[in-house]
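Hi F.,

I've been meaning to write this up properly since the lab meeting, where we talked about keeping a consistent format for the predictions we share between groups. The idea is simple: the sequence comes first, exactly as it goes in, then the structure tokens exactly as they come out, then a line or two of notes. No screenshots and no reformatting. I'm using this chain as the first example so we have something concrete to point to.
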Amino acid sequence: MPLVTVLATGGTIASRSAPDGAATAQDTGADLVAGLPLPAGVRVQVRDVLRVGGFRMTVDRVHTVASAVAAELRDPEVTGVVVTHGTDTTEETAFFLDLFHDDARPVVVTGAQRAADAPDSDGPRNLLDAVTVAADDAARGLGVLVGFGGRLFPARGTRKSHTLAADTFTNPYGGALGWVYGGHVEVVTTPRRQPALELAAFDPTGVRVDVVACYPDADATALQAFAAAGARGIVLEATGAGNANPAICAAVRELTAAGVVVVTSTRVPAGPIAAIYGDGGGVDLLAAGAVPSGLLRPSQARILLAALLSIHRDPDEVRASFARLRS
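Output, unedited:
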């Protein structure tokens, strides 16, 4: 008989409104599961890990969630794990979990766009679907999944695409892996997996990674300020296929020489980073020492960079590992 663990971390799925209208995470995991028409024969156990909005997540808190997932999967009786989470940072947490996930059993991250006390809350359906997937052998070997609106996405490359719409998640590269309907799980494609990082080696002490936007008139002020604040890694949210300007490129060269790892991503929703232009473009960033993020957008590029900096202390090793794991 399948056993699914639900790890509750808060988010809109657990939120209720105060008299002033402000919603905060309040419901426990038991509250979320109570009343669900669970699939026949599936047992569910609940653990409360956090109770915060997705916008309050930190790398330390994501590490706490990853440790909780790993602890559940040490139990051979557990068939799969569901993590309820705020949608604002689902893409970061799901990707972090996937980077360290080395078990065939599925982990499904889900949540809601409408609060628990909304008359049309999407939380119960999303949670029921996630439990259904976590209990199904069809989801084995797929890594960490984002389950939302009846669709299943791989953690890598998936992102929130609409501030309010219930069907908010998308993956521009491979689309959905499958779907859930009427208690049936259908998987149509399998993601390519990378070797898992070692969770026991992760130590984020002293690791700061920031994101800097590039835009017309941008200069090196933000880069220098973050470096002065102790950043060991910086992700550039560049324009186009990964372009900046001469001032940014000069600062990247200086930071790289000082041991700061700089990664180039882009604000464009889809497409790879490509070194095409000089005069402050991607060719110059590459020459200055920046590492292209491949298909990863800033949110997930930052997570990969933070994970590697929390395992390796040598910037060159981090750069090499990032280049290997970015795709």
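Notes:
The chain has two domains: 3-187, 207-325.
The longest helix spans residues 59-73.

If this format works for you, I'll send the rest the same way.

G.
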